[in-house]
């Protein structure tokens, strides 16, 4: 029931003034519901533009070749005391561009440059004949370099893809650290290509040490249970061989057309 505040006359619910005395009646406006604020969106990691990534890799490369990084000490430590060095690496925040531009690319230049010098200047001996070819040297060197850089990135992808199957942590940054640093012996051994093609077999033997480094690093960087390490290593080696062969054939074919 509604009444006039002035004379007390009864009013209709929708009345805007009193019919008895003419007093205006305030009409309450319905309250509008408070606007519903959208739920905060989770922070999405911002992907760096390609040119920013390229610049970061380039800066890492420059720092490494000018001696502003600990690359030499890292190589020595990973080769001579891998267990302790993997623990140190585990405390570092993975940075893909620095790993590729500031480490992998630098060391991958060793077999690449060695191949160019071998085939272009020293010469390649076959059945008593020595041949030299600048084109072959450049092609071989580029295949070595691109195979190393692209291959180690693909290897990291495979390592990370297999991680859940071996109760290991799925983290691409850690997988890339593992792939890059475990490849150190093979890249350093690339200097042997200067001396004789028979040294290629020795490089393969040295590659076995790379497998050891990988096995030692798995429990540290990927939290792999000890009983899962052998299977993880074996499957990764198979994938690594397939990647190396296929990638080498593709790059050799492409560069053979271009050079």
Note the topology.
Layout: E1 2-3, E2 10-11, H1 50-65, H2 71-80, H3 82-90, H4 96-122, E3 124-126, E4 129-131, H5 134-162, H6 172-182, H7 184-188, H8 199-221, H9 229-258
In the residues, how many domains can be counted? Answer: 2
The total of beta strands comes to 4
Calculate the mean pLDDT score and round it: 80
End-to-end distance: 97 Å
Principal-axis shape equals elongated
Number of helices: 9
Radius of gyration: 34 Å
Overall structural class, as computed from helix and strand content, comes to mainly alpha
- Following the backbone from N to C, one meets helices and strands in this order, namely EEHHHHEEHHHHH
Strand order of the largest sheet: 1-2
Biggest sheet statistics: 2 strands, antiparallel
Task: Tell me the β content.
Answer: under 5%
